[in-house]
Each structure stands twice: as C-alpha cells, then as structure tokens.
Fold this sequence. Notes:
The structure holds two protein chains of two kinds.
Chain A: H1 16-20, H2 27-33, E1 38-43, E2 50-56, H3 58-62, E3 66-70, E4 95-96, E5 104-108, H4 111-119, E6 122-127, H5 134-138, E7 157-165, H6 168-174, E8 177-185, E9 188-189, E10 197-203, E11 208-213, H7 218-229, E12 236-240, H8 250-268, E13 272-275, H9 278-284, E14 287-288, E15 291-299, E16 305-317, H10 325-331, E17 341-350, H11 364-382, H12 386-393, H13 415-423, E18 439-451, E19 461-467, E20 473-477, H14 486-498, E21 505-509, H15 526-553, E22 560-563, E23 566-569, E24 577-578, H16 579-587, E25 594-599, E26 618-630, E27 636-646, H17 653-672, E28 678-679, E29 682-683, E30 702-707, H18 729-741, H19 752-771
Parallel strand pairs in A: 1-13, 11-12, 16-17, 20-21, 27-30
Antiparallel strand pairs in A: 1-5, 2-4, 2-6, 3-5, 7-17, 8-15, 9-14, 10-11, 10-13, 15-16, 18-26, 19-20, 19-25, 22-23, 23-24, 26-27, 28-29
Chain B: E1 2-8, E2 11-17, H1 23-30, E3 49-52, E4 55-58, E5 71-73, H2 75-78, H3 86-93, H4 103-116, H5 122-129, H6 140-154
Parallel strand pairs in B: 1-5
Antiparallel strand pairs in B: 1-2, 3-4, 3-5
Helix pairs in contact in B: 3-6
Bound molecules: FE2/S2 (inorganic) cluster (2 copies).
One FE2/S2 (inorganic) cluster is lined by residues 38-41, 43-48, 58, 60 of chain B.
Amino acid sequence: MNKTKYVGQRLPRTDSLAKATGAARYTGDIWVNRRDILYAKALFPPYGHARIKSIDTSEAEAIEGVAAVMVADDLPGMNGYGGMVPDKPVIAKDEVLYEGDPVALVAAETKEIAEKAVKLIKVEYEPLPGYDDPVKMLDPSSPMLHTDNPFHKNHNISDEQIIKKGDVEKAFREADVVIDNWYKTPLVDHAYMEPDAAIAEYDPIQGGITIWSPQHAVQLAKRAMSDAFGLPQSRIHVISQLVGGGFGGKEDSTFDVSVVAGVLSIKTHRPVYFELTRDEVFKGTGKRHPSIIHHQLAARKDGKILGIKVETIIDKGAYKSIDAIPSRTTQYAGGPYSIDNALTHSWSVFTDHPYGCAFRGLGSPQAHFAMECQMDELARKLDMDPVELRLKNILRDGDTTIWGQPMMEERGLGLEECIRRVTSDPKFNEPLDNSDPRIRRGRGIACFMYGTGTGSATDGAHVMVQAQPDGSINIGVSASELGQGFLIAMKQIAADTMGVTIDKIYLDYADSAASLESGATVASRTTVLTGNAIINGLEKLKERFSAVAAPMLKTGKENVCFYQNMVFAKGLENEGIKLTAVIAKAFASQVPLGAIGSWYPPMATPKGDGLGDKMHTYAFGCEGVQVAVDMETGEITVEDALLACDIGKAINPDTLEGQFEGGMAQAIGWALMEEHFMSDGKMKNHTFHDFLIPTAKDIPDLRTIIVEHPNALGPFGAKGAGEPPIVPGAPAIRNAVYDAIGIGLNEIPMTPVRVMEALRKKSAENADKSRR
Amino acid sequence: MITVSFNLNGKDVSCTVDAKEVLVDTLRERFRLTGTKKGCGTGDCGACTVLLDGEAVRSCILLTAMVEGRKVTTIEGVGTMDHPHIVQQAFVDASAVQCGFCTPGMVLTAIALLNRNPNPTEDEIRTALSGNLCRCTGYQKIIKAVQLAAERMREGR
Ligand code: FES
Ligand code: FES
C-alpha cells in the first residue's frame, strides 16, 4: 500500500460550491431548461381504499396540448414494478389500496394543460373499509388486502422472520427478573427536501429508454422497472442526478415517478417529466415502518442478561417495497449485547397505508428503541447503574450475537470505548440544574450496533477504472451522491490507492451506462463495498504498470511505488519517473489501461433458525443526551447530545461528522415530533406545518466523537457510517426523560400530549396511593 | 394576465404572468433561475427563499404580481462559482452543505440576517434560520458557517 495523503483528511467536498451558488442541477432543474419535454400529472384517489367502478378520460383527452392520457389498460408492459418484487401497479386497475395508487396519467405540452386535464378525468369509486391496524390484519380471520396479487398469497403477511438461539424458556425459568413491556413507534416520512421527480426519454434508435431521476440505485432501477416498460433490462439506462436528500426513501419512491414518466414516454415517444407535489410525496411515497414491539427480557440479579423474547409487528403499508424490516428487527432485537438465548419474531403486515420502505437504519432504530428502553428498565429494577449494566453485557471479542455470529476485534469492536468516552465527558457529568420545579432535567444513554452492507448473498460491488494517457483516472461507479459526500470519500480512497494527486481522479458516477452493478447506495455500504472495489481495480492497474515501470526503473516490479503522480523504486523517491511516462509505455505495449474492480464481503452464512453470519462488520456507538421537561406544557427540550460512534476509520472526518449530526437530528425528530396519522387509509397530516420535523431551534449543539476500531476488511479500515448515527437517539432521549420525570414513556414520538397524559396518570396514581 | 416589472439580480426585467402565478415559478420557469428550489410550495420549508428588497421571503407564497417595482435577489445574484459571496464560501468551508437542496435558501436567509445583525448570537442565528428546513445536516455546520461568515464579514474579508 502507498503512503496515504488524503484518507483521513478533512477535504472539502467537490459539490458544495456548486450547491451553495445554485449552479448544481437537480432533476427538476433539467426540466426547466429543456422545453421539448412533456409535463405529466397523475390522478390520485381521494380514498385510502376503494374500488374503481369507471373512468372517463374523454374530456381530458379532448384538450388541446394533451399528448396522452393513460389508464391501466394502456400500459406497454406488465402492470407492476418494485425493488424486490413487481407488486405495485403502475396504474391501479380495479382497486386502489392506498392514496398513492395512481388511477390515470396525463402527459401534456405544459404544466398548466396537464394540471387542467387531470382534473377533468372522471372516476367513479366505491369506497371500501380502510385497513389501518396491522395487528388486526395479522389475525387469520381478517380480510385480505391483496385479493388478487400473485406476489402476496400468505394472507396479509409480507414477510415473517424468526431467530431462535439457545433455550429461551429455560433462561426465563432461571431468571431472577423478567422485564416485560410493549413499545410503539410511528409512521414517519423521510422528509427529504427535494420532492420526487423524473425525466424519461424514449430511445428510438435501439428501442430503449433513459431515465434521469434522483436514485439510490441506478442498476437496481433497471430490474425494478423492466417488466413495467416491457423492455429487457439492458435497454433501460438510468442516470441519477444529484439527489436532494434520500435517506433510503428515494430507493423506492424514485421508481414511483420514473415508471410514470417512462410509460408515458414509451407511449408518446417524447421525453416526459413527472414530479410530485409535497402533498403527493407525503401521501404516496415510502415511509419508516411503524412498529409495535412486545419485548421480554430475562436477567440474573447481577445484571447478566440471560435471554430475550421479542415479537414485532410491522405496518408494511400496501406494497412490499424493500421488506428487510422483519429481518433487521429480529436481528437487532437484543441490541449490541451478548445474549445466549433468544427468540425474536417479526411480521410485516399489509395495510392501506403508504408502503414502508428503507429509511436510515432499516428497522434497527425500532428494535434498538425497545431494547435500550428495556436496559434502563432493567437497571432500575436491579437498582444498577445503567452504564455498568451495559458494560457488563456488551459484545466483546469472541462473544456471539443473538444470530450466532462471532464478534472479532479485528473487524472493529469499539463499543466499550464509545460508552466510556460519552459517559466520562465533562459536560455530560456537570450537575443538573433542577432548581426550577417546573423544569425537570435528566440524562440518559443508549447503545447500538449496525451492520455494514445488506448481509445478503447478492451484496457486492463492481467498478470500472481507466487510466488516461495524461495520467488522470476515470472511475465508473454506480453509487449516487445523496449529500453524504461519497464523491469526495471515493476520490480520497482512489488517489491514495493509485498514488496520484486527488485532482487526477474523476468519477463517472450514478450512470448505469458508465458503471457496473455495485449495489444500491443504501445499507451504509458504499464506502466499504464500492471503496474496496475501487481499490481492487486500481491495484490491478498498478500491478500492470509496475511490470511496465520495473525495467524503466531498473528494479523488480515488487519494488515499484506510486506516489503523487510519480513512480519510483522503493527508497528512491527522488529518482522517480512520471506516471504519465509509464502509462504511455503501457499504452504502446499492449497493456490495457482499463480494468474492472470487484469486491464481495465474506458470504453471509444462513444456517436455519435465523442463525449465521450476516454482515461482515458492524458499527457501534453510544449516545448520551440531556433533556429538560416542562412539567406544565409537557414539552421536551434536548439540551445536549453527544454521540460516539466507532466507524472503523474516518475517510473524511468532515463529511462523517455531517452524517453523525444529521442522524442525531433525525433521531430527535423521530423521538419527539414526527408522526403521520392515518384513518381509513387516509393520511390526516400531509404538509410541513402539521407533520413537523426539527428546525434549527429544536436541535441543540450536536457533539460527536469519532472512534476508530479498524475493520481489517474495510478500505483503510473503514466500516459503514451513514445510517448508524440515527439509531441511539430516541431511546437515549426516552431514558433521559425517565431520569427527569420518573416515567418511562414507551411510545414515540414523546409529544407534549403524551407527556402530559403520562404526568397526569402518574399524579392520579400517586394520589390514589396516598389515599390508601 | 398581468405585466410585472421589477429588478432581478440587478437588472430591470418584466414579464407577463397569470395573476395567480407565484414568484418561485416565475423565477424558475420563466427566468430559468433554477438555484431557487421548491421544496413544498406551501410556505413551510424555506427552500424557495429569495431576497425582496433585502429581506428573506418565501417565493412560493408570494404572487409575482406583488413584486412590481421591487428588487428581487436570487442565489444566482449574490455570488457565482468564480466569485462566491462570503456566506457561500463559508458554507463550503464549514462543510455545511450535504444534499444541497436547502442550501440556496439557507444562504439567502443568512445574508439577510447578517445584513441587519452583523454579530448574531447562536440563538439569533437559530431563530433566523428556523424557517428553513434542512433534513441532512442537523443544522450544526450551518450554524458554524453563519458564524464563520459573520466573523469574516466583520473582518472585512
Ligand atoms: S417551497 Fe416555498 S417554503 Fe417550501
Ligand atoms: S443539505 Fe440536504 S436539506 Fe439541507
């Protein structure tokens, strides 16, 4: 390996100046500048569940400037698409299963005409009962949501996962204490600032289609939409523009808009632009799955956890989307602890709600919320320090997780350091000011672990690398720039690997035609998987160039070093030759200048009962928060938040901190404010003034500590870091509130209404006790 | 249709619009100034912020007809990639930009704040920015960027 010059440095991102000056173009900005594009609108139903009795599009079609009106019967291919299975109709045919099912589509010369035309489509509906309750829907006697969907035959269950380890019943029999509680988490929107949008342009030359849209996964998009377009996957070309925030959501929602633009473009042979209004984004796109969790935990009186039994019911919404939540909630139901006996069981259940999709943490925040609340409940029951209790149980080198995977320090196990650094922080230990009886202050912590990558057999990454004769390097990589800073991180990794100055690295990114399958930009996997694939490809080039350079340098090829655009024999840094000279020689010597780089994590090893190795490495962390609770209004203020997270190696500490801070803020929103209310399949709050997310006033100074326990298989030791920071916030806040007011709230968001209700209930109980 | 004349980024312009047209659409679709973003269209997110006679306003709830005779400044009018405004440069230097969709609105809100209060406290910055939503950054580095810009402006850099 060369000397590192860039990895670990706080280098500025390459996209920030363009974004700060308005020069950066997002999908909607291309439409504005391309006036040959038709504008599309979809007609969405006014019901969450209804039968379509008739549709009359004649008036819309008659308007001048309308290029196409489509209903389900007009589609070019199969009426279905989706990331995992094509179960979501492009246009609803007989029934709408949630508010986001389009009933008809319009493409017109202008936005005004499209808006006018869509209003003239007449649909007769027969409203059907809304299925809002996943617990009821799980009952075998309940009606089926999908009555005629080839992908959904298992009653209302989209997925069911179980992990069984050890002898749980015995553990519970032998336990000194059992902690048994229910927890509830809400339906929430990703609230990315850029509403979904897509441009589709039919390719008349080869009969294909090009899609521009903010995507998490340009290669997956080809598979997800090919049936709907009636085209082979190879003919679908997908380019992800800059993504104005995704957080997992645009992995699916982008298909929703791309498929609409696509079928209209295939029909009209014209380019088509389709965007959602914010109202449509709220009602129609994917959400974080709400969950109801029954968590039972058995422990010895010295605090050792003996076993857990956890049941999690997940509101899947109407379609499958990315349905990894049962798998992740069973996996993380025991938190980052060594537990010998476990039975964890999760179901994702169909309802008339927006489909649950990937959202930062993918089920792990829900699972850790319950587990980390349970840890504080256990600490209270045993009158133990919650920090000591955690330290007693955390996974250490050689321990196995509840899914039976041994933990290894060489893959990075920094949890203890995270806990110690948070809990020994001076500010976190200052005396609490509880002088005002109206304001109660308290502190709490929560810990977590989170795997890098999908943990599935298909996980892997492939990239194209190509040296140019002028010494610059192209890297074709299918990952997307979501704002996380992947461009700069990949450049840092590539420049140090190749031994070139960073300005020599240019990424051909997020374009399915310029790159290979490297998996979706999800699951905190890009730095590690794509980074490793880039290293693999560049090492191939270096090996070839070493062979070319060796005779030029009069040394063996094993002695050839690359650094800062120079090539030299080991130890003879000052007698080097320019990399361009070596490339020129290679070019003239039948040595290819391009290569494919690949990397696979160690194969997941499913062994039955949900056991076996999943991800090859895990991020760990601990967050400590201080809250103030206003006893008269029930309002909770987070006054301090400190996150320590072990991510192996910080490739770029600036962008990494950005991920930490963003995740911490989203956790505050999830814990305290965000919640969609559904009734009869209809969303009650669908604007930013009734679905509140944190503003600058709701967030304290966010403090972060980067902990680096290197992952031997990661690029420069890195592990995945994008999602982990959201995981511990909600339970840490809840535990701090518990500390402040002596009440453990088991349902989030902890809104003033819920806090006041809990306070009133407690004071009634106290009054009752004192009367007796 | 109404003809509206106003000053846009230092130039006098006029356009003929429907009485119901909002400024964000006029700026983006007629003048192709796509640096102004539209995140909600309901006046809640601040992505569409522009300066109207120096004050930060939401252009998605402002009728174009209302800007007759006034001075509108968009993100394109405050600085360019070659000559960024101090606040834009501070956003870059403080790593305050992630997905960037909120950034133009944030920058303009910050400029309006610093023009009326060159030495704001952290609390004043948070209050000023509280109408601009950012889902990516937790606001941490945005606050730092505004503080950095304030410092540089005071030092006349
Ligand atoms: S687009 Fe104007 S406030 Fe959101
Ligand atoms: S940087 Fe993405 S919304 Fe602010």
